[in-house]
Specification:
single chain; 134 residues; alpha+beta; Thiol Ester Dehydrase, Chain A; seven-stranded antiparallel beta sheet; 2 helices
């Protein structure tokens, strides 16, 4: 996956922390992403959530020699608590990716953003697609 080509990554200060078979972890700083209330802007959090799921799905696709064309098809996001610190954003599959009748793969991903105290501040449940173009 080509993170260096994702311009918001640098602009928002999002950093890859770990990429493993069962999870992908990013960090997003409060500094540079504050809203007018002094909390982490929901739009910045959303970017980190979507990016984490995209990267996790894409890494899996590359490992399975399916290429790296990944898109989010649909998602649900909730913000149960304001974020007042840097966040750890972790993506995991809700279920193993499966191939659709179209030939593309569905990757159901859950991404959680937790604050410095480990409290859940944002969650994305995403339906990613790995687009096979062979």
């Amino acid at each position: 996956m080509k993170l260096e080509q994702i311009e918001p990554l640098t602009a928002l200060g999002i950093e890859l922390v770990a990429s493993e078979t069962d999870r992908t972890e990013f960090r997003i700083p409060l500094a540079g992403n504050r809203n007018d209330k002094g909390t982490l802007f929901a739009g910045s959090q959303y970017s980190a959530l979507v990016l984490s799921g995209w990267y996790h799905s894409g890494t899996w696709a590359e490992q399975h020699e399916l290429g790296d064309t990944v898109a989010i098809r649909d998602c649900q996001v909730r913000y149960p608590k304001p974020a007042t610190s840097d966040l750890t954003v972790t993506a995991r599959f809700d279920a193993e990716p499966d191939q659709r009748p179209s030939g593309h793969w569905r990757a159901p991903v859950r991404v959680e953003a937790r604050d410095a105290d480990g409290e859940l501040v944002a969650e994305l449940i995403g339906d990613y697609r790995i687009l096979v173009t062979q």
